[in-house]
Amino acid sequence: MHAVISTSALPLFLGALLSDWAYSRSFQTQWINFSSWLIAGALVLTGLALLGALVGGPRRRGGWVHLLLLLATFVLGFINALVHARDAAATMPTGLVLSALVLVLAAVAAGMGLAGWRRRAIA
Length: 123
Prior knowledge:
The chain has 4 helices and no strands.
């Protein structure tokens, strides 16, 4: 279950990055609203994955790295949410850069979560 929750935030962070990119091209403020909601949903799922990693994850091999990646994803995602709470014009380019960084962190954390799940399934 942890691997599923850990990877579920990835499409939401990707959607936020794409919404930020769409705003940077069109300057339609609704794209920033979409991005803010996607980031909020992704933070909920990342928080659940972080909680799951705290409860059962650190004991396995690579668990601490996975936990720290989830924590970094959550903290940078929260900062990104605060940046997106500002006026739409004030979010660029910081919001776009943060969205890209958070997406990369989320992808690495999801990959580690899936790798841990696969190791347990094989063993």
